[in-house]
Amino acid sequence: KMTQQMRDLQLAQARKPPGPSSPNAAKRLYRNLSGKFRVNYTSFDEGSLAGRGEKEKLRKSYLFQSNAALFEAVELQDLDRVQELLKQYSPEELDLNTPNSEGLLPLDIAIMTNNAPIAKVLLQAGAKESPHFVSLESRSLHLSTLVREAEQRVNELTAQVVNEAPNADCSEKEKQLKAWEWRYRLYKRMKAGFEHARVPDAPTNVQVSVASSSSVQVTFWEPLSVNSAVVTKYKVEWSCSPTFSPPLGEAVIDRLQKLHFTIQGLVSGTAYYVQVSAYNMKGWGPPQASVPPFAIPSNWREYDGRAPRRRGQAEALDHLLGQVKTSHQHCVCHEPCKNQPQSRKHSVSKSLKHLFHPGSKFLKTLKRGLYLTAIFYKDDNILVTHEDQIPVVEIDDTYSCLLMQDFLWFTKVSCMWDEILWLRQCVTVSQSSCSCILQTRFKMLLAISQMQGLLGIQDLGQVFFEPIKDKQGNILIVTLKEVKTNQTFESVRWVPICKLQTSRKSVSSPEEPTALDMLLISIQDKLDYHQWSSHALSPGLYLGYLKLCSAVDQIRVLVPETLPNILCHVKIRSNPNISREEWEWLQKMASAEEPVPAEPEAETSQNQLFQELQVAVKALMTLVNIPLQEAKDFRLYSQEVLDFGGQVSFLLLLPPSDDVCTAPGQNNPYTPRSGFLTLPLQIFELGEE
Length: 689
Fold this sequence. Notes:
alpha+beta, Serine Threonine Protein Phosphatase 5, Tetratricopeptide repeat, Immunoglobulin-like, 24 strands, 18% strand, ANKFN1, Ankyrin_rpt-contain_sf, ANK repeat, Ankyrin repeat and fibronectin type-III domain-containing protein 1, FN3_sf
């Protein structure tokens, strides 16, 4: 069949006056001709679809050319061009795993010419080997056929060029001869690459760790040898016997973006042995046993049968909130204030009417009081009013109560932006008590509703961890929200942040700036804080450092600036699970009388954790600027492992008991380097959620 295709190709090329000169000429001619002779039947009723059909034809033609360009780039060993095409098109658009007329795939050409860089790039993109090569014999026969037919074609064209007089046809045949000579050398190189290849060596650094009570995770590296052919897949095998007789299961990994595999559905408390082997075009290489040699699926909770700390808490809180709402539906706060004095009813009614009156506007200046500002940003732009002011509304112009209590209450309210109307109705009934705190909090709810109404949006975002205060007596509570869609707002417009900072004229002196000026000066820091607060840790086990400091009205916790929703930390490993055996060892270490317990046995999961902890403790001490010799007085929190969503877990490193929380006026001998800040504990807890 292939010989007949080559003869048809020769006849077609002889009839066509112009001829290709690139090495892929024969292949592209064959494809183009086969496409031209396809019949396309179009009825008159389909005339309205003709334009769409032409566009589809052009698109397919364009993608066909990109597929041919990929083959040519691989054959010419042009790594940059291969990477460019893979970046520009998807694997489906490139027909990455569709064989060409010679029955080859781009990956076949790369591995048989032993071009490891291109082969690895193709494998990362999801490339496969040709399904035609079901055995070593079939691959060898196919390559021999390609070499033989290419050699025959070269001989035929050579004879024609020698025997014919110089003319246009002769010049065309010379071009064809050069193309086929190049292809003949390519096929010979591929055949030689296949014949000299050998099976791959065993993978290196094969490690197994306990991922959960029913799974283990296997990680490994490529074989060290560079003389073998490119590895295209790996096989993970597991068994309850160290001899793997009988085997319990195996999995073939042909997507090589990440060299790891999780074995699921195992029995807790049972030892499983694991080995990994590599494959190339010559077959499977020898297996490599894991270190440690086996793993026992388990979880640290099995040590004492402890249930997850947060199990059912979210559901219980939702149920409790539902009960509160139900009880308030029939409460006096939803009646027309019948128990309140008439004058009080009139003032509250008037204030509510004023809230939704068209005359309600954003403030331009501050006049000694408590205010709310909402910062909405998108890329380098920020929402401002038509007067180029950041949206600000007044909370209370006679504010004199304890700020921190009210501010922390406000941060909790920020978790219920959609429930402000309901909260406001519930607080209204308490106005008769004339409590300063309740009065202020009711005004906070009114200000939130006013901001929501003026902007036309309920979600005002995240509260910045501390209010802005100036010497004029103004206090500014700041909320931040990133807008990622083309959302429309009322009474505001987008302007670049830099333009707002340069165009706004300060109404205060540099020595005593107002809260608004202070906000504009530090606005980029606040945007950075907001973005960093939404970052999440990658899956893994971490070592965290708990350091608190107390003040008169609050306790603050030390956190990194670039991840303020998490304690200071370093990563121990990528596997977040602590097995039962590891936890038992940690318990023994925590209760040991000696400062440093004996090192566990080699080639065990406990020894691996011991070494990982040693590295992590040194890194964490350096990070928070604590001398390493002081680490002997620190201790691991051994009551539990802190779990965050199942993919992130923490072991806590605690200072000596007297230094966990620094009291007011107490000097901290070890001041962390730059890049840290202290958050109010309640703010940290909200961010952690």
